[in-house]
Amino acid sequence: MAARNKNHKTLVNLLSENPRNSSKRVQHFSRKRTSISNFWSAGLRRARISIPESTSDWSKLPEDLLRLLVDRLVVEEDFIALRSVCKYWRSAIPKDYWKRVPWLLAKKYESSKVVLKGLNSLSRNIDSLSSLFQTELSWRYWGSFTGWILSQNQLDYRLQLVNPLTNVVIELPRLGHPISKGMVFYSPSSDSLQPGVGIMAISHRYCGIAMLNAELKQWTYLSDNKHKSDFVDVVWYKNHIVAIRSSGTIVVFDEAGVAASLTPPLDKVGDHNALYLIESSGDLIILVQRHVILYGRHFEVYKLNLDTGGWIEVTGLGRHSVFVGESYSISRRINDDTGDTWKPSCIYYTTYNPISEKKLYCYNIVEKRLEYHHLGHVADVNKCYDFIWYMPAVGTK
C-alpha cells in the first residue's frame, strides 16, 4: 500500500522526469531551468522590461509575463521544465496553456513481444515511433489527458493504471468482467496543485457506470434503474458523470444516482454508426458519426444544453479540433504557428482502421468533407494497430 501511495503522490510530476536515471533527472531539469531563466532574461531585455537587480526571486514574476514566455516555447520538454521550477509558476501556468495535439499510441509486434509505441504529436520532424512500454497481446488500453492510461487484461480481467513514459504500473481492484470503455480524469482535490485521479468505466454487467473511489480500492456502481443502460460513451463534465446511450439519451449522474435523463431529438440520432461525448472549450459536444455511401465517414456536431436537453448544431469549432477514438477522445486548440499540418475545426479519428498507407482520417467540419493527415514521414506505422490518443501530463490547472 505504501508503494501505491508513493506512486499516487507523484502522479502529476512523474512525466516531467527522465525515467532512465535518477541523477540524470536532476541534471536535466537543472539545465532546463537555467536555460529558461537565461532565455527569459534575454526576452525581457528585448522587450525593454526592467527588473531591479535586487530582484532574484523568480517566483514573483507577474502571471502575464510568465504566459508570454510560454508563448515563445516550441518544445514540450521546455514547457514541462518551466512548470517544474516552483509551485507559483505551476499554478500560474495552467496545463491547458500548452496548445498541442495529443500523442498517438499503438501496439506493434517486436521480437515476439508486443510493444506500446508512441508518436510524439505526429509532428513533421518525427520520423519514427518510440518504444514506450512492453506489453502483451491480451491487454487493452484506454487513453487519457492525465498522463496515465487505463488497461485491462482480456483473459483474467485484471486492471492496471499505466504511465507509458515512466513505466510506472499501479494495480487496481478487479471488476471481474470486461469493460467496454474506461476513462481516467482529474477529480476534485483539496490540493489545487496536485489533483486526484478518478477512474470510471462503462460496465454492461451492472447496467451502468463503474466508479473507482479516491483511494483506488473499491468500485461502486451508478445505474439507471428505469432502463437497461447500453451506454456507449462517458465523460467527466463539471463534476458530474455524463453518459450517452446508443439511442442518444443523455444521462447525468451525481453521487446519489441519476440527476437527469435527457431524451434526444429523433431527427439527430437516426441511422448512426457511433456517438461520442467530448468537452470542448467548456461546452459538451456530441459527435454523431454516420457512414455515407460514396463519401465514407460523415460527422455531425452538436452542442448539448444540459438545462433544456437541446442539441444545437455546430458548423465549426473555431481554433479547436477534436481527436476521436474508440478508447478516448479529446478537443485541443490548434496553434497558428505550430509548423505542422494540423487544421482547426476538424475531426481526426482512429476508428475503422485509420492508418491506411500512412494516412490518418480527418473530417473537415466547416467544409463537410473527408480529408487526410499524411504520415509519410513515419516509418513502420502501417505495422501498428489498436491506436489510441494520449496526452502526457504537464501538471494541473
Structure, briefly:
Residues 55-101 form the F-box domain. It contains 6 helices and 25 strands. With 397 residues, the protein is an alpha+beta fold.
What's the arrangement of secondary structure elements?
Elements: H1 2-9, H2 22-46, H3 63-72, H4 76-83, H5 87-92, E1 103-110, E2 113-119, E3 130-135, E4 139-142, E5 149-153, E6 159-163, E7 168-172, E8 181-187, E9 196-203, E10 208-212, E11 219-223, E12 231-237, E13 240-245, E14 250-254, E15 257-262, H6 266-269, E16 274-280, E17 283-292, E18 296-304, E19 311-313, E20 320-324, E21 330-333, E22 346-349, E23 359-364, E24 369-374, E25 385-390
Parallel strand pairs: 20-22
Antiparallel strand pairs: 1-2, 1-25, 2-3, 4-5, 5-6, 6-7, 8-9, 9-10, 10-11, 12-13, 13-14, 14-15, 16-17, 17-18, 18-19, 20-21, 22-23, 23-24
Organism: Daucus carota subsp. sativus (Carrot)
Domain F-box: 55-101
InterPro entries: F-box_BR-signaling, F-box_dom, KIB1-4_b-propeller
Describe, in plain words, how this protein is organized in 3D.
The chain has 397 residues and is of the alpha+beta class. Helices cover 15% and strands 38% of the residues. The strands form six sheets. Strands 21-20-22-23-24 form a five-stranded mixed β-sheet, with no helix packed on it. A four-stranded antiparallel β-sheet has the order 3-2-1-25, with no helix packed on it. A hairpin with a 6-residue loop joins strand 10 (208-212) and strand 11 (219-223). The chain is globular. Mean pLDDT is 75; it is low at 1-55. InterPro entries: F-box_BR-signaling (IPR050942), F-box_dom (IPR001810), KIB1-4_b-propeller (IPR005174). Pfam families: Beta-prop_KIB1-4 (PF03478), F-box (PF00646). Residues 55-101 form the F-box domain. This is F-box domain-containing protein.
